[in-house]
Design brief:
The complex is a heterodimer.
Chain A (H helix, E strand, L loop, with lengths): L3 E4 L2 E5 L4 E7 L4 E9 L6 E7 L4 E4 L2 E6 L4 E6 L8 E9 L7 E3 L3 E6 L1
Parallel strand pairs in A: 2-11
Antiparallel strand pairs in A: 1-3, 3-8, 4-5, 4-9, 6-7, 7-8, 9-10, 9-11
Chain B lengths: L4 E3 L2 E4 L5 E6 L6 E7 L6 E7 L2 E5 L7 E4 L6 E5 L8 E8 L8 E2 L3 E5 L1
Parallel strand pairs in B: 2-11
Antiparallel strand pairs in B: 1-3, 3-8, 4-5, 4-9, 5-6, 7-8, 9-10, 9-11
The chains are: A mainly beta, B mainly beta.
């Protein structure tokens, strides 16, 4: 069954600290994996996108990793800011040759406190 | 930066009433999507639309749902007879083309069925 799981479910960190969010998936065939940031009541905003051949990709203070063999990804946030408080969603897209569908993880709720 | 726009931002409707949610995808995008997110739950795929027809739909997208691209710019989601469990945030999204990896989301339309 095509699924995306994320951990932890929620996380509270102090401003300025780093954190790492995890994503495991069983989606097949795999096309790409994205991390989205979703503020409460808003639409998801793309942070990074990684294809099968990419291991690491950075976007400012966000660094995503992908291990396609173990089907795991992580999102590392460096020097967290209060504005980083949001839900972070891992989204996996199935192969372009398959149906055009993406599968969402349940998200990790991050709270950054002063 | 181009964006996907949705209207209304919030709608309250009585059970059994018809609702139309409107979306203006990014100009020149070819693939269109509707997703929904029930409060506190993960984002769920509803339907994808390409070349003026549905390319894929989920089990959620039953006969009470329909989509339409009436004039080449708008992309609508109609719920014929709303139920209490249809209360959710509905997100419209668009993608440029088959090779485009990023799906751009609108800000969502909150639907409350009472």
């Amino acid at each position: 069954k095509n699924q995306v799981e994320q951990s932890p479910q929620s996380l509270i960190i102090l401003e300025g600290k780093n954190c790492t969010l995890q994503c495991n998936y069983t989606v097949s065939p795999f096309s790409n994996l994205r991390w989205y940031k979703q503020d409460t009541g808003r639409g998801p905003v793309s942070l990074t996108i990684m294809t099968f051949s990419e291991n690491t990709k950075s976007n400012g203070r966000y660094t995503a990793t992908l291990d396609a063999d173990t089907k795991q990804s992580s999102l590392h946030i460096t020097a967290s800011q209060l504005s980083d408080s949001a839900s972070y969603i891992c989204v996996v897209r199935r192969s372009k040759t398959s149906y055009d569908k993406v599968i969402f993880g349940p998200g990790t709720s991050l709270s950054v406190i002063p | 930066e181009p964006e996907v726009t949705q209207t209304p931002s919030h709608q309250v409707t009585q059970m059994g009433q018809e609702v139309i949610l409107r979306c203006v995808p990014i100009s020149n995008h070819l693939y269109f999507y509707w997703y929904r997110q029930i409060l506190g739950q993960k984002v769920e795929f509803l339907v994808s639309f390409y070349n003026n027809e549905i390319s894929e739909k989920s089990e959620i997208f039953d006969d009470q749902f329909s989509v339409e691209r009436p004039d080449g710019s708008n992309f609508t989601l109609k719920i014929r007879s709303t139920k209490l469990e249809d209360s959710a945030m509905y997100f419209c999204a668009s993608r440029a083309d088959r090779s485009g990896n990023t799906i751009y989301f609108g800000e969502g339309s909150w639907l409350t069925v009472v």
